[in-house]
Amino acid sequence: MSKNFDVIVIGGGPGGYIAAIRAAQLGFATACIDEWKNDKGGPAPGGTCTNVGCIPSKALLQSSEHYEHAAKHFADHGIGLKSLSIDVAKMVARKDQVVKQNNDGILYLFKKNKVSFFHGRGSFVKAVDGGWEIAVGDEVLTGKQVVVATGSSARALPGLPFDEDKILSNDGALRIGAVPKKLGVIGAGVIGLEMGSVWRRLGAEVQVLEALPAFLGAADEQIAKEAQKAFAKQGLKVELGVKIGEIKTGAKGVSVAYADAKGAEKTLDVDKLIVSIGRQPNTTGLNAEAVGLKLDERGAIVVDDECRTNLPGVWAVGDVVRGPMLAHKAEEEGVAVAERIAGQHGHVDFGLIPWVIYTSPEIAWVGKTEQQLKAEGRAYKAGSFPFMANGRARALGDTTGMVKFLADATTDEILGVHIVGPMASELIAEACVAMAFKASSEDIARICHAHPSLAESVKEAALAVDKRTLNF
């Protein structure tokens, strides 16, 4: 006998579990289906983000940063160590525990909000009066509204599948059992830089190969150049404009043939190779064809501006649809869809979604880059402030980078904020709030910021737009 729900969410990642919780808060009888399994075969909701993405990568980044501080920076504080070692197995076990805590937290939230959870793969069966039949294992659920939030998976190089031993996706990169002597990374995006940073800090010689001619082309050019200089100083080697050739695996490791930016043929021999060349939407197994759910040429679900698909009562959010593949973007869409189902006016401003790369230095931005404003022909003013002039950054011993403001030349409205430096991931939130309220750079410049704090650099960069910084 079918179980009936007002809303069925397929996928328990950031977009899915948040959509399910918000729908339940709005009074809908809600089910969430998710197939992730832990090592014991039990449910592990949270999707890629919680299991093999955002959360575990930050755990390893934190561990490796502690190690690097102990190895290279404790002496500056008068702290001496007679010996230093890294227990990679224990580090990975801690990462796994952090993941489990998040898995368990989501299950608790489902219980708290009375969301019915089903462990397995959800797929469409057919349309029925007033809704849709969704299969999960041996059960069939019926929902008046369906939200697809099945996420994405790592894209492999053609003819080179992931074995998660020598050829690694983000999943395998998080499970390396010992520090490799030489590590190769294809792709200088978020995942490549973060995972490369983890193992570089622990002692691996890391070489990153990137096909694009520019480093972090999506970021503001000035910020990207500052970050690139910092990475080079750390010993994280990044080679741009390469063309990948044949890749061979053997008993000793991986051999990558490639042509550099000038066309010279080279070979990179490494113990392990991380491939981070993007992600692809997860629509296999949804049975989309049987019900006529429209997909685009990438396999993503086609939606309108409000996340409606071509099928009545069927919505889709997160990595499986257009737009940036970011967990917080998925969450915002999940909330908006639940509210739209309730007849409310759920809203997502794609122009105010922050981007963060959790390397050291951290990189974060929101809004327009300087190159975008130039391409649009929009008149703007720019102001920046270096962390080397910030008292708190000096006390931390981390003065790399800057805060940069871009504002409209006439109205002074903030158009973009770009940060490379300590705690950029936290500092960017002030810019998001300011831009959501259409603040001017002078608004930020005239707000009192605590001293000493890294946030003062945000205020000083706002002052710099009017060429009146106080500490630089």
From TrEMBL:
FAD binds at K58, G122, T150, G151, S152, D319, M325, L326, A327, H328. It is found in: Cytoplasm. GO terms for biological process: 2-oxoglutarate metabolic process. The keyword Metal-binding does not apply. It comes from the Bacteria. It is an enzyme of class 1 (oxidoreductase). GO terms for molecular function: dihydrolipoyl dehydrogenase (NADH) activity; flavin adenine dinucleotide binding. It catalyses: N(6)-[(R)-dihydrolipoyl]-L-lysyl-[protein] + NAD(+) = N(6)-[(R)-lipoyl]-L-lysyl-[protein] + NADH + H(+). The active site is at H451 (proton acceptor). Residues 353-462 form the Pyridine nucleotide-disulphide oxidoreductase dimerisation domain. Disulfide bonds join C49-C54. NAD(+) binds at G187, A188, G189, V190, I191, G192, L193, E194, E210, G278. Keywords: Cytoplasm, FAD, Flavoprotein, NAD, Nucleotide-binding, Oxidoreductase, Redox-active center. SUPFAM superfamilies: FAD/NAD(P)-binding domain, FAD/NAD-linked reductases, dimerisation (C-terminal) domain. Its cofactor is FAD. Residues 5-334 form the FAD/NAD(P)-binding domain. Its EC number is 1.8.1.4. Binds 1 FAD per subunit. It holds the Pfam family Pyr_redox_2. GO terms for cellular component: cytoplasm. The active site is a redox-active disulfide bond. Belongs to the class-I pyridine nucleotide-disulfide oxidoreductase family. This is Dihydrolipoyl dehydrogenase. It comes from Rubrivivax gelatinosus (strain NBRC 100245 / IL144).
